[in-house]
Write a structure and sequence with these properties.
Order of helices and strands: HHEEEEHEHHEHEHEHEEHEEHEHEH
Strand order of the largest sheet: 4-1-5-6-8-7-12
Radius of gyration: 22 Å
Helix content: 25-40%
Strand content: 15-25%
Number of strands: 14
């Protein structure tokens, strides 16, 4: 983590970034809350130290679309670049006696290289190139990130023809990772939905992984898992926008140094104590968890549990059965999502639930729509309030101050 907060003495980063970068360099030592971008840096840096090359491309990935990543800095005076994760230790030189893993002058193994590139707004071409790279270099972590998840539709042919089906058609295994920013914050229909429903419709025979992690630690373990597993499967990730800076969506250092990726996260409110009073279990995925949790705190409801499905496919049926067994048998299970009813994970989850238990999974969320989002902040807020009220309950009106 120290490398994230340092740069050469003759290098001058933008003054507004200095505080952010220094903070990143101290989060582990001081056990401070770790945000999403820092969690990603820790995942990439740990893989580099273990000898895995990380290749990352997409529109504005070096800075990060939401000005969060800052993987490559620019000197404000000279325009020179500096990538801190390539200076954790001495870089290995493949094919020489100073290769990755060999010992440097300080007695430490040399690290692998972080290859991160801004790419054109040509999703079809760039995603196709990165897919080919993942086939040729299966031991690398190869990542493509869309500027907004919606933009992946420009590469739909690559997704349908190759990424989702090449294993079944041609026995070609790929570990390509796609990061698709997704979440409803009241923006327009081209900046809200990564169309998770389209990816879930392509799922079958355990061909791809579709994940929607909600904490930096989950994201960290998921990225590392992509390299450490003995097999290769494409990974489709719904990554956040507003959660990048949400204090509730942070993790502590201990969550990174231990544990593993959790496909389903039980409600931490009921980790200790009785669950006998739980009457309703809300199943959800992604950012909406934090909306539901906030409303539950505001209403003081103690009879409602919130369970997060972090990996939508392959669905971890055994873990789900364990969680269900811990709640009363007569508890009501409902799927809640922020996407319209005909979009998002609901169509996939209702069939999954039917296959597992032979019962229908009720729905709470936005109504059926022909467009991913309204584009109207006021209507967006009304819809959010309506489904949170249906799922948890209405907020108590603010009390007027007594004169």
């Amino acid at each position: 983590s120290h490398a994230m907060g340092r740069w050469p003495e003759d290098f001058t980063p933008h003054r507004k970034l200095v505080k952010t970068l220094k903070h990143r360099g101290s989060v582990v030592d001081e056990d401070l809350p770790i945000d999403w971008a820092t969690g990603e840096c820790l995942a990439v840096g740990s893989l580099l130290l273990e000898g895995a090359i990380v290749r990352f491309s997409g529109q504005d990935v070096r800075r990060g679309t939401f000005s969060h990543r800052h993987a490559v800095l620019r000197d404000v005076n000279t325009n020179a670049t500096y990538c801190s994760l390539n200076h954790i230790r001495e870089l290995g030189r493949p094919g020489t006696d100073q290769d990755v893993g060999t010992i440097d002058d300080q007695g430490r193994p040399r690290q692998a290289k972080y290859c991160i590139y801004d790419s054109p707004l040509s999703e079809y071409a760039v995603l196709g190139f990165e897919y080919g790279f993942s086939l040729a270099s299966p031991n690398m972590l190869v990542i493509w990130e869309a500027q907004f998840g919606d933009f992946a539709n420009g590469a739909q042919v690559m997704i349908d023809q190759f990424i989702a089906s090449a294993e079944a058609k041609w026995h070609r295994w790929s570990g390509l990772t796609m990061l698709l920013p997704h979440g409803y914050e009241g923006q327009g229909p081209e900046h809200s939905s990564a169309r998770v429903e389209r990816f879930l419709k392509l799922c079958g025979q355990r061909n791809i992984q579709v994940c929607n992690p909600t904490t930096p630690a989950q994201y960290f373990h998921m990225l590392r898992r992509q390299v450490k597993t003995p097999y290769r499967k494409p990974l489709v990730v719904m990554t956040p926008k507003s959660l990048l800076r949400l204090p509730a969506a942070s993790s502590r250092a201990a969550e990174f140094s231990s544990g593993s990726f959790q496909c389903i996260i039980d409600d931490p409110k009921f980790a200790e104590g009785s669950r006998d009073d739980v009457k309703r279990v809300l199943l959800c995925s992604g950012k909406v968890y934090y909306d539901l949790e906030k409303r539950r705190e505001e209403t003081g409801r103690k009879d409602t549990a919130i369970v997060r499905v972090e990996q939508l496919y392959p669905f971890h049926a055994e873990r789900y059965a364990e969680i269900r067994a811990a709640y009363p048998k007569d508890a009501e299970y409902i799927w809640v999502q922020e996407e319209p009813k005909n979009m998002g994970p609901y169509g996939h989850m209702v069939l999954t639930h039917l296959d597992l238990y032979g019962t229908h999974l009720p729905y709470i969320g936005r109504p059926i729509s022909s467009t991913p989002a309204t584009g109207s902040p006021s209507l967006h807020t009304r819809q959010l309030e309506a489904f949170l009220t249906e799922a948890i309950g209405a907020k108590e009106p603010a009390k007027a101050e007594v004169a």
